[in-house]
Amino acid sequence: MRILGTGSALPKFTLTNDRLTEFLDTSDEWIRTRTGIQSRQIATDEDLLGLALSAAQAALEDARLEPGDVDYLICSVIEPDTLTPSLACALQAEAGMSCPAMDLNCACSGFLYALDVADSLLRTGKAKRLMIVCAEMMSRLVDWTDRSTCVLFGDGAGAVVVDGGENLFRARLTSEGNVGILNHYPDPGNSPFLKSAHPAQGLYMDGQEVYKFAVSHSTHDLKQVIGEAGLELDQIDCYLLHQANKRILEAVRTRLHQPPEKFPSNVEKRGNISSATIPILMDELNRAGRFHPGDLLALSAFGAGLTTGACVIRWTKE
Ligand code: UT7
Fold first, then answer.
1. pLDDT > 70 in the chain, percent
2. Structure confidence by residue, pLDDT tens digits, 135-146
3. How far apart are CA 183 and CA 291, in angstroms?
4. 166 has pLDDT over 90
């Protein structure tokens, strides 16, 4: 699998830590030292579809392709604007794509799951050129009175176009079936027959458990998938990790004995945008000229489920 183009889109409103202190019992100092986050982009008059469309169009332009060149569309999203039809169906109509289109929800690991599905479709010949769009509006999921979660997240979308050109791609996915540590319950509806339903609840997270899980699994997944690809950790040119928290990134980096320049980060300005963090970071680095043809990239994500995903891919784009 090869990456042909990348794109991203963010809402225009920047929510700083200081602004959060106007309605929450928190501080810039607490948020910075625990997470590294200084600000995040939060939707005001944007919707998820608009962000997804802008990211998709930017990725097509970067790949010098037209919407009709894409023969499969996968969107990674926790909560689309409409639960049905999918975000992917709404996006294909706006973008002018007529191809199979589906949503996939693997929380923050969604980009890695989507890449692995894309790889399978390419290998079996069911698709020749796919677009993956990860679009998340975390500001709709969090409880804005819960300081332990709402300060962590942001909104945005990242997209890639891929094809099956001869290239290195190796992925590893896991899932544990744990609903208690990290969850969000939507409105249960108003069926007069339903005897018991979990009431609606904003995003809940046991931060310390997720922290331990993230550091141990991300470290293990990366060692495993890089080894399975026949490579050494030091041969990887760039590690792109789910941008949840600067402390997690640092903990994984030191366990892998890698230098800071191999672990780029944008969590300081973006916060955690769930599955969109890696494709947004990849797009920012691509546009900054950080990647060179032949570079080896290792990706790793973790999230609700609890799910994880990691992969190794060679950057081939000029
Ligand atoms: O994609 C999903 C990935 N999720 C994550 O990456 C989250 C991983 N977890 C973490 O990064 C950390 O656990 C957090 C940043 C979420 C929390 O840091 P912590 O060091 O684990 O803090 P804590 O939950 O143990 O809370 C420590 C204290 C508590 O006060 P008391 O009980 O000691 O008085 C909290 O009430 O910090 C308090 N606290 C806050 N204080 C100021 C919690 N949130 C805040 C806040 N501002 N925003």
1. 100
2. 999 999 999 999
3. 35
4. no
Burial of 222 (0-12, 13-18, 19+ CB in 10 A): buried
* Residue with CA nearest ligand 1 atom 29: 148
Where are the domain boundaries for CATH 3.40.47.10 in the chain?
2-165, 170-314
Contact 112, 311 (CB under 8 A): yes
- Which atom belonging to ligand 1 lies closest to the Cα atom of 34? 15
Ligand 1: distance of its center to the CA of 25 in Å?
13
The closest of 294, 309, 302 to 116, measured between CA atoms, is 309
Q: Span 42-61, mean pLDDT?
A: 98
- For 46, the token pair is 């944007």
pLDDT at 250: 98
Contact residues for 311 (Cβ-Cβ < 8 A; gap 6+): 112, 115, 116, 169, 170, 171, 172, 225, 298, 299
The residue assigned the tokens 């609606």 is 200
32 lines ligand 1 (CB under 6 A): no
Relative orientation angle of helices 246-255 and 28-35, to the nearest 10 degrees: 20
The tokens of 72 are what?
């499969």
Q: For the domain with range 2-165, which CATH number is right: 3.40.47.10, 3.40.190.10, 3.40.630.30, 3.40.640.10?
A: 3.40.47.10
CB of 303 sitting under 6 A from ligand 1 = yes
- The string of pLDDT tens digits covering residues 122-137 is 999 999 999 999 999 9
Q: What is the mean pLDDT of residues 159-182?
A: 95
CB 148, CB 104: distance < 8 Å:
no
Please give the class, per CATH, of domain 170-314: alpha beta
Gap from CA of 299 to ligand 1 centroid (Å): 25
The per-residue pLDDT for 25 is 97
Output the residue whose Cα is nearest ligand 1's atom 14: 207
